[in-house]
Structure formats: structure tokens, C-alpha cells
Amino acid sequence: MKAFLEKPYGYQILLTVIGLLFFLPFLGSVHLFDWDEINFAESSREMLVSKNFFQVQINYEPFMEKPPLFFWLQSLSMSVFGVTEFAARFPNAIFGVLTMLTLFRIGRNLHSENFGLLWALIYFGSFLPNLYYKSGIIDPVFNYFIFNSIYYLIRLINSDKGKEQNKFAGLSGLFVGLAIITKGPVGLLLLVLAFGVYWVFNRLKRVASVKSVLIFIVTIFAVSFLWFGYELVQNGPWFIVEFLKYQIDLFTTPVAGHSQPFYYHFIVVLIGCFPISIIAIPRFLNKKEQDTFEFEKWMKILFWVVMILFSISTTKIVHYSSMAYLPLSYLAATYLFKLHERKLAVKKWMLITIGFFGFVFSSLLTLLPIILDRKDDWLIPNLKDPFAAAQLSVAIPITGWEFLIGVFYFISIVFGVYFLSKLQVIKSVLVFSISTAFCLLVFTRVMVPKIEGFSQGPMIAFYERYKGKDVYVTPVNMKSYAQYFYTEVQPQDQGSGLADYKKQLLLECNAESFNDLSQKDKTIFNSQVVNWLMTGEVDKPTYFVVRVHHQDKITDNCAFIYEEGGFAFYKRK
After folding, report:
1. Using one digit for the tens of pLDDT, what is the confidence trace for 319-344?
2. Whether the Cβ atoms of residue 280 and residue 129 lie closer than 8 Å to each other
3. H-type helices in 111-209, by residue range?
4. What is the DSSP string of 540-564?
5. Rounded distance, CA 350 to CA 335, Å?
6. What is the DSSP string of 215-266?
7. Rounded to an integer, what distance in angstroms lies between the CA atom of residue 444 and that of residue 236?
8. Strand, helix or coil at 124?
9. Structural Rg of the chain based on CA atoms
């Protein structure tokens, strides 16, 4: 192995193989999850159906939340692999490998190949970073672009050569532009805030030439114009205005009810980024040492900018703070590398804390299948929520060996802590990383489908019965995108009853399109559509899905079909 690693690109090949082995398998073994995964996948599917690749849509109406780059990637994947869960998640798996290679490359440039390897592996082997590369959400791609843009900005600031500055300015601007057309203006905001904090700390000193600044700005505009400019020319300013208004709403109002306490993201990072969240703590307390290009200072700044920005934001979703995982992993890798070089002694409290959290996580992995197997006796009788009780009533078989995932993880944690205590850092990181990745891989294949069976499984199974059929299928009194993706809904013909009714509603509202309505009017509009499907003169077979405790929302002219997993299914008489 040592001889192989010493060959050109040996480390890169190793990391690529590891990434592909742990990211690609079982990507399609479970349905996409509401909301985000299905929302994004459906928008990508509709791109292929409508051939409109520049305006993101959901139910063939403009979707204001996101620019199109990620959907381009998903659409490309779907055109190769088909409209499947695997295709929807495949881009992130590839970006998982790219991220590992990028961390190795940056780490090698900053310190050494061993450092780059430690950094890539410890990031890969943490819970949420690993899990997100098996998902179909936007953040892994967005984070990759932002991190690269900041890296090249650091290189720009620390270069004293004009040609190098111009090159780094162009590369930083390129990645910022890609981030903007991936997730919107927040891409530029994160970089500007991080730079602003750094600039203040450096007493507002000049950091780059005027030419490099201009190259940076022009490159951002040139790349982002690929989408914003096209939309402006094709559809006028309304779409851009509505898009920006929605981005502001994300920060000022709890969109879709995603309101959480201020400290929410700190808890997410502490628990979700185990073990790097524990290992990185000593570097936050370090104030004296500085590494190449003041990179550590930048990583601390980036971490706090992300955490504070999304803690202030009124809308809080678990993956919003995922950009913080990358600088956090660098700080953890720095501490581990210093242990590896025998420049530090390992902290006893750290060993104890890693052991404690490892015990808690392994206990949860061990107990979960046991509790689910005994749910009829232990859980359901004690639940006051009728929906939750009904969900757990689904018969999902537990074979009896699933608890071994947790047992294996605990044993791995013990070995990892032992190696770390003996300053055998490489062995420790390999144990932590590979065991975490392996357990998540097995858990994804074995337990996640069972958990999904208790949650959304019965609902999606119902939708799949009507895939490609000329029917109306809609949820009642709940937000979902699953009905679009899993029935493969097609654009409504202008002659269809639903299309005509929507056109009539818009005329009554003095609006030309759905997006001309206010957010309040959109809610009223959607409720009127559901009411028409239940009571109006429908022209197609019409089906409804409702949670069991909301069946009073269903009108008398709908016939009950069956009930399963907390959902009741109806057909229009």
C-alpha cells in the first residue's frame, strides 16, 4: 500500500475508490424524502418534460426558491439513468468524491500529503457530511463551490504576483458565480461576510490590486448572467424580483413553519458532525499559532459567519448550516496532524467525550431496531398523537440482527479512542472514518427503508399506483411534493377541467399567472383548487390523501378506499 501511495496520484486514486465504494451503493434503495429531496427531483424531472431548462418549476409553475444549476445536474443524471431515486442522488455522490479530492489537494498544498489525507478522511467519516452525499439536496454542491471560492480568495490575498492574483481572482469569481446559480445570492453573501470580518481584523489593509478586484467582479457577473441575465431578457424583471423577495423571506420569516431556537444549528453541528465537532474544540481555543496563509484564521471566520448568519435567519432547516462542516473539519484535521507529529499531547477530556458520544450513538443504533420490533407493546400504547400511532402500526419486519450495526460501531469507537490515546493518529482516523461510513452504508440499506415504511412509505406506494395515468391525485391539508414525482404528473392541457378552473380563478383575481398572486392569495388559490377537485365537475378520476386525524377535511362526495400508516385514501365519487 505504501508503494502504491507513493506513486503519482496514488492518494487521489485511493480517496476516489473509497468515496465511490461508500457513496454510490444503495443510492436508490429508499424513496426520496419529502420535502426537499422530492421537490428538487421533481423540478429536475419537469425540466426534462417541459424542455424549459432555464426556469425552475414545480407542478409546471415557476419555482422561486432556487436557481437552476443543481437541477441541470439532476436532469443530466436522469437523462442517463432514468427518472429514479439513484439518478436524483447521483450528482451529490460525485461531488462527495470531488470534495474529498479537493480537501486532499488543499491540505497537501498547505502542509503535506498526510495532512490532506487526514482532512479528507475525517470529513468523509463524520455523520452528516457523509450522509448528505447520499441525498438529493442542493447543499453539497453549493458548499463545494463556496469553499473553493474562499480558498482561491485566500490565495489571491496572499499572492504578491500580478499574474497569480489575476488567476486566483478569476477562479474565486468563477466559483462564487457557480454558487450563486446553485443557491442564489447567499453564495456571494457568505464570501463577502467572511472577507469583511477578515478585512476588519487586518485593520482594513489593502489586500489586492484594482485589476484583480475587477476580474473577480466581472467573472461573478459573467457566470451568474448565465441564468439571471437569461431570465431577465426572456421573462422580464418580475421573476428576478420575486426570486429575491423569496430569499429575503427565508431570513425574515419562518418559511413553511421551519422556526427553531437561536442555538438550533449549534446543536445540529455538535451532534451531527461527530467526531470532528469534538476533535476541533482545542483549535477554537488556540490563539497563538497561525498556519500557512493564515488559513486557520479564515476557517474560524468562515465557521462563525455561517453559524451566526443561519442562527439569525428565522427559517432554520438542518442542512442550512452544512457549510460550517468544511472549516470545522479543517480545524479537527489540524489538531490531529499536530498529534501525529507529536507536537501535542492528546487531551484526556477529548478521549472521554468521544467515547461518551460514541456510546450514545452506538446505543441508539443498537436500541432502535429492538424498540421498533417491540413497538406494539412499548410505543403505540403510550402515544397520544393518533397520526404517529397509526404510522407505527405498519407491519415492518425486523429480522433480529439489525442491532449488530450499533454493536459494531461501539467496538470501532473503542478501537478508535485507543489508537488516538496512543497517538496512532492515522489508524485512529481510519477506524473512525471507515466504521462510520460503513455503519451509515449498512444502516441506509437495512434500517432507512424500514423507517421510511413507518413514515411516508404507504403514501408513496399509493401514488406509485397511478404513475403515468391520466388522473388527479392530491394531498389534503398537508404540504407534499411526492404526488408530482411519483405519479409523474404531466402539464395540464388547456382543455382539461383543472386547467380551465385555474384559468378562471386567475381571472377572478385579476392575475395573469399564479406567480402574480401574493403569498396569502396563493394559499387561498391552492385551497380552492383542492375544493374544486372534491366538489367541482372533475373530468378525470380523482384521488385524495389525508392524514387520519384530518379526515374531516374530506367532503361527503368522496369515497373511502383504505387506511394505512397514518394516511387515509379517498376517491371522488
Report:
1. 889 999 999 999 999 999 999 999 88
2. no
3. 113-124, 127-132, 139-157, 162-183, 186-201
4. S-EEEEEEGGGGGGS-TTEEEEEEE
5. 12
6. HHHHHHHHHHTTTHHHHHHHH-HHHHHHHHHHHHHHHHS-GGG-B--TTHHH
7. 45
8. helix
9. 25
Distances (CA, A) of 408 to 23, 359, 400, 421, 435: 20, 11, 15, 20, 8
Contacts with 566 (C-beta within 8 Å, 6 or more apart), sequence order: 387, 388, 389, 390, 391, 393, 458, 547, 548
Give the domain ranges of the chain. 2-269+292-301, 350-455, 458-572
How far apart are alpha carbons 465 and 454 in whole angstroms?
19
Amino acid at residue number 272: G
Confidence of residue 317 (pLDDT cuts 50, 70, 90): confident
List, for residues 50-89, the tens digit of each pLDDT value.
999 988 999 988 887 889 999 999 999 999 999 999 999 9
Question: Closest Cα partner for 98 from 184, 191, 12?
Answer: 12
Whose grid coordinates read 443543481?
70
What is 190-222 written as a DSSP string?
A: HHHHHHHHHHHHTTT---S-HHHHHHHHHHHHH
**Cβ neighbours for 557, distance < 8 A, ≥ 6 positions apart:** 534, 535, 572, 573
Q: Which residue has the cell 436524483?
A: 88
Instruction: Please tell me the distance from the alpha carbon of residue 448 to that of residue 365, in angstroms, as a whole number.
Output: 12
Picking from 131, 36, 134, 49, the residue whose alpha carbon sits closest to that of residue 83 is 49
Locus of grid cell 489525507: 117
